[in-house]
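Researcher: I'd like a candidate sequence for this fold, 227 residues long. If you have to choose between options at a position, lean toward the conservative one.
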């Protein structure tokens, strides 16, 4: 039976004392691909931020990759984020460092020491997203799709159990979005769990998977044809 990597029970998500989502009950198994959809302002980003510790969970029960989200301390957040890969809409690459140096920065920041091990890991994740030949390039020399591939590679550096992708195709054209989705699906096929917030319904139709919808302060599963 597949291991549970995310469990939320009777959760209410707040932002600045305002209820964003209430009565959230969710279980995600290892290896699932899950979409989170909904209009702007319905809670997609707040939901994702709660999962990686950016918003505290104060009501209900929640656990992700072995961490209790209710009891999560500031000191534990870096350790949580080593087990979760995060991909943002705006890439968030360091503009003054090459692709390789962006990767190296993350590894050093998360405790890696050996130069050969770091190079081997960087080469491996860049190759997995088709970006190894771009290692010496600066971010401004890359297209949006290429930058997002690098951002996905960065999310893979510490072999996360779960990848949270918050509107990863939001700044990309339709064809590039499909290319990025192919990369994410390949990663999911290798056994990693992916939770992806998106407003791109065309992508969901092209790459159908379990879908949750944020609406009216709740989050619920929808069948594919009604998204």
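Model: Candidate sequence:
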């Amino acid at each position: 039976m597949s291991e549970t990597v995310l469990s939320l029970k009777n959760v209410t998500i707040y932002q600045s004392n305002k209820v964003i989502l209430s009565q959230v009950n969710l279980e995600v198994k290892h290896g699932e691909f899950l979409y989170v959809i909904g209009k702007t302002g319905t809670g997609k980003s707040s939901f994702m931020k709660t999962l990686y510790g950016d918003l505290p969970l104060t009501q209900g029960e929640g656990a992700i990759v072995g961490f209790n989200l209710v009891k999560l301390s500031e000191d534990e957040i870096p350790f949580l984020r080593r087990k979760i890969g995060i991909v943002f809409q705006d890439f968030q690459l360091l503009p003054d460092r090459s692709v390789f140096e962006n990767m190296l920065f993350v590894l050093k920041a998360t405790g890696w020491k050996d130069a050969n091990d770091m190079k081997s890991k960087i080469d491996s994740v860049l190759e997995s997203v088709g970006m190894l030949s771009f290692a010496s390039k600066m971010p401004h020399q890359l297209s949006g799709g290429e930058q997002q591939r690098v951002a996905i590679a960065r999310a893979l550096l510490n072999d996360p159990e779960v990848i949270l992708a918050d509107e990863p195709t939001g700044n990309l054209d339709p064809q590039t979005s499909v290319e990025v989705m192919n990369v994410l699906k390949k990663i999911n096929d290798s056994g990693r769990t992916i939770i992806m917030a998106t407003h791109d319904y065309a992508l969901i139709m092209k790459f159908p998977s379990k879908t949750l919808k944020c609406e009216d302060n709740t989050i619920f599963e929808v069948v594919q044809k009604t998204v």
